[in-house]
Structure formats: C-alpha cells, structure tokens
Amino acid sequence: MDHLTSRTRYRNAAAGLLGALACMIVPTTGAAQAPTDFRARLPQDEVIYFLLPDRFENGDRSNDTGGIAGGKLQHGFDPTDEGFYHGGDLAGLTARLDYIQGLGATAVWLAPVFRNKPVQGEPGREFSGAHGYWITDFTTVDPHFGTDAEFKAFVDAAHARGMKVYMDIIANHTADVIRYRECPANDCAYRSRADYPYSRQGGIEGAAINAGFDGTNFERLTRPDYAYTPYVPEAEATVKVPAWLNDPIYYHNRGDTTFKGESSLDGDFAGLDDLYTENPRVVQGMIEIYGDWIDRYGIDGFRIDTARHVNSEFWQAFVPAMLERARAKGIPNFHIFGEVYDHDPGILARFTQVDRYPAVLDFAFQTTATDVANGVKGTDALAKLYMADALYAGGEAGAMQLPTFLGNHDMGRIGGFIAKAHPDASADELLARTTLAHALMMFGRGVPTIYYGDEQGFAGIGGYGAARADMFPSEVADYATHPRIGGAGESFSTQAPMYRRLAEMARIRAASPALRRGRQIVRATSETPGLFAVSRVIDGEPGETLIIYNSATTPITVNIEVATASQDWSSLRGSCPAASAPGSIRVTVPALDYMICVSKDPA
Predict the structure, then answer these.
(1) Given Cys at both, which of 263, 491, 532, 562 links 379, Cβ 3.0 to 4.6 Å?
(2) Is the backbone of residue 271 left (phi > 0), alpha (psi -120 to 50) or beta?
(3) pLDDT-based confidence at 35, cuts 50/70/90?
(4) How far apart are CA 267 and CA 400, in angstroms?
C-alpha cells in the first residue's frame, strides 16, 4: 500500500540448499526441471518469500538509471538515498533463486515490476518509484528492473525449480499525472459526490453536464470536470499505457482521499490518479491488462494492492476473470490475495464474503502474533483470533489460504517491533522472541510469508524506508546503524541464525502435510504470557500433530489434552515423550521456545 510513499522517506555470494516441499520440488542443481505437479500444490502448501526487486540484488549495473538521462530527479537512481532507486533488478533476483529456495520458500512474491513514473513529489519532497506502485505502463517491465525477456527468464527459472511466482498488482490508481486547474500546488482537498455531483460543473450551482448519468450508464458520462477541472500536462499526454488510461474521464478526479467514507474509494492517494473502477471500460481494461501477464508468463498468483479502496463490484468481476484466465493457461490453483490494511478479522473477512476475494493478507494475525511473541498479550489472544476464522468465505477451510505475515515494507519488521518492545533485552532474548514469532506463523493455519531480510536478522527502525534496507551491500548510511537480530553477517549468508532457523521450520512444514493442510484445534491457552498449544489434523487420516509454544520467560511443564487415541508419540522438534496417557500428554517447553510432537495413532 505504497500510496503514501511520496510523503515519507524510505544488505552477497553464498547460496544454500535445504529442500522445500517433500516430493514436490526438485533440488536446485544446474538446469533442474520442475516436476509436472508443482502447479497442483494448494495455496496453503506454499511458503512465500516477499521482496522488493530494487532492494534485493543488483545483477546488472547497466540498468541502474533505467536508461533515462539526467540526474536523480530525472531517472530516480541514488543508492545513498533510501527514497530512490538502489539498483536491484530481475537479473539479480534470478541469480539468487538458490538462496531463496534454500531458505525453504516455495513461492516468490515480488513488488510491482511495471514501468513506473521515475520521480514524483513537489520540489524539495521528491521520491522515486523504486517500490513499483506508481505505474505509467501496465504492459511492460520497468527498465530499472530489466526487460520483459528478463522477467520471463526469472519466471522460467523459478518454475524450473518448482517455485511459484506471485505478482504484486494495482487496479486502484496509476502514477500521479493528472492535474487540477483549481489547485496548482497539487494539494486538492477531497470534494464529495453530494457537494459536487456528476451532473453539475464544479458544484451544485454549476452548469448542467453529464445529463441523465445515474452512476451506471457511463455512455452519458462525457465530462470529467464535475468536482475539479482535470487536465494532463502536455509532456505526459501519452505517458500511460494502454492509451485509454490517458483520458481523465476514467478517473474520479475528486482530490486527495481522507481515508474516510466515500473518499476512501474515490480519492487520490497523495495525488495518485484514482481510477473510476465503476466504469465498465476500466473493469474490462484491467482484466485485459492482467490477464495478458498470465497468458504471457504463466505466473501463479496476484497480490492485489489497496484492495479495500476499490468498489466491490469491480472485484466481483475481476477476480473470477483472473481465475478463469489462469485455468485456461493450466494453472488450477492461482492464488489471489488482497491487501486490506485492517487488523479486525471481521473487516478482513468481509472482503472474502462480499468482494469475493479467495484470500486477504492476514493483518489480524500480524498484530496478534507480534503481541504474543512480545509478551504484551496472553496466548488466549491467538485463540480468539482463530475463532473468527468462521467469518471467512469457506469458514476455517477458507482461512487456511490467508497469507500470514509478521511485518512488511509499509509497517516495518518483526525484529524491529521486538527490539522496540524490549530495549533492554539480551541478544539471545531478541533472537528467541523473533524465532517464536516466526514459529507461530510457520506452523499455524495460513500461508507463511517471509519478508526479505528477516532471515538475515534485519530489524530496521521503523516503516517505509527503514523497512526497505538493501540485501546487497548498501550505500545508505542509516542502514548500517540498524540492529540485526542474531548479529550482523555477510549479505545472503546461509549461516545467519534466523536463516538457519527459518530453513529448519520450512523443512519441518514441508515434510508434514498436517502442518500445511490440517484442520487446526486450539488445545491450550493462557491469559498471560505462557502456554499455547494447537493440534493439526487431516480429517479421515490417522495421526495428530501437536505444536506447543511457550511465550513466557521461564520453562513450562504441563499436561495438554489430546485425542484419546493419540498415545504413541515421536518428535519433529523438541523433547516429546514416547508415550502418553489416553487423552493427555505431559510436556516441558523451554522459555520462549516451541516443540512439535506427532502421534502415530489414529486421532
């Protein structure tokens, strides 16, 4: 949700192999071929790795300025400034696929790669489109990242390893190109539909225009100057692709959003041109644009930016069209998940029920898991969170498709949240809490999503620029001062403590279908920091997988209720008893740690 980045300021040669989904992904050796069934994996089978191409790896320095002449305010490249392009590209990303797969990730979600307006903002407050959310050309790759051929090479290389590729897309807005004559400083306040109806020019006292337009018959909407008088500067008259995007009639043109009420749907985000997504031409145009990316490259899913800021009817048409386009391409489990920046599971679930999203990013999990790992809340907060799974379309089964995460490029990193909450904690405690948070994500229901750099212990000191440090050696002075969970090491180190711990988690998860697809049963919670236990079971199949967490700073010895038939146990992690009484297992969990026990008996 990078619509605010124009108002804000924004670490290589080891590769590791550890495996991924058992019997589904081949080793990454040489010209490995993808198994024929990698597309058959369900969304919940994946471990997603989310990255910003500009901040990951610079594989080709010749494209650092995107082939644009001039200085940083023209081409947007300044590797010393956290708000500008740093040089990461698709060639670098492709060269690092072994590193990502070695972590245990099975899908790569990359921030938008479409051609962006290189620099936006008013004089003295300029920033670059390094993040990718200021699109001018929706049909091609931004030259700062490489070429369409290099994008195809990346997708093909990922598929050859049995890895999926998820694109980050936007349908809510384009880059800031349209201007309004009434506010040359580009700081236009939002003008509502009530005060500035579509039927009057410049307000209710204005001349009659768009006669007979009722919000559905768009052939009658012929003038866009009902609220402001929009125009496109001559130098940018044809900058947007496809060409229809250059016409102001396809935008709301009502000024900047306040993120409240109707302006949340119809307002410009910091000047970004808000598309009139109610218009059938816009709906069909976006279906054509993104369907073509599926057709051309055979990608495996979309993360959709700013989902909550587009009308429901748009998604009700767009989502099924994309799923059908993917099926026609031979992609049966195309994963679509929207960004709904809200921590209330009821609000999140609404977008699966009404807007008909298959899934949304689980911001509610992010908040709760962070609070539990920090000891701010008891573990019963997680139980309450999971009770809300019934609200999602498909109920608990639908909730299993929700990507779970601990931090991102907008809000900041889990390591930073933990370091801030425990300023006097030892390095060991910070590492333990960060590990615990990731274990909550990796073994709970949903699709675990690792934010690039967290496996190297990146913590940052806040959101936006501070959460977007370079994986390759950085020239940004501030990044060198950021703390590292587990200590600083070489870029792309496969020996970093968090890399090794995450790889262990991913290996365990890949080897256990119950940890990916199993129904989740909460077994024990605590009103204070301490015990949290859940079972994962696959209905109709024998066995019970029990995950026990301890968010307290002292060990816990406790009896936990399990299925009566679960008596013969083995350990996936930790010291599990070999046997237990019918219906109960006694375990000891170290402080800030977790264990996983598996029953071999029918559950």
Answers:
(1) 532
(2) left
(3) low
(4) 33
- State the pLDDT at residue 184: 84
pLDDT digits (tens, 9 = 90+) for 242-291: 999 999 999 999 999 999 999 999 999 989 999 999 999 999 999 999 99
Residues of the chain with CATH 2.60.40.1180: 518-599
Buried b (16+ CB within 10 A) or exposed e, 587-602: bebebbbbbbbbbeee
Q: What are 305-346's pLDDT values in tens digits?
A: 999 999 999 999 999 999 999 999 999 999 999 999 999 999
Tell me which long-range contacts 341-347 makes (C-beta under 8 A, separation of at least 24): 341/1, 341/308, 341/410, 342/308, 343/367, 345/385, 345/388, 345/389, 345/391, 346/388, 346/391
What does the alpha-carbon distance between residue 67 and residue 128 come to, in Å, rounded to a whole number? 15
| H or E stretch at 514 | helix 513-517
Max CA distance (Å), the chain: 83
Three-state SS sequence of 320-379? HHHHHHHHHCCCCCCEEEECCCCCCHHHHHHHHHCCCCCEECEHHHHHHHHHHHCCCCCC
| Residues contacting 150, CB < 8 A, separation 6+ | 89, 90, 91, 94, 141
Every domain range in the chain assigned CATH 3.20.20.80: 2-172+281-511
**Looking at the annotation, which residues are catalytic?**
305, 339
- pLDDT of 34 > 80? The answer is no
Burial class (CB in 10 A: 0-12, 13-18, 19+), 194: exposed
Look at residue 24 and give its three-state secondary structure. Answer: coil
Nearest to 457 by CA among 423, 433, 440: 433
Q: Is 196 exposed, middle or buried (0-12, 13-18, 19+ CB in 10 A)?
A: buried
**Cα separation, 33 vs 46, whole angstroms:** 19
* Token pair for 134: 């200021």
Yes or no: is domain 2-172+281-511 CATH 3.40.50.10700? no
Q: How many CB atoms lie under 10 A from the CB of residue 547?
A: 26
Q: Mean pLDDT over residues 524-543, rounded?
A: 96
Residue 462 carries which side chain, given as an amino acid letter?
A: G
Cα–Cα distance measured from residue 111 to residue 535, given in angstroms and rounded to the nearest whole number = 34
Q: What is the pLDDT of residue 461?
A: 84
Helix%, strand%, coil% for the chain, nearest 5: 35, 20, 50
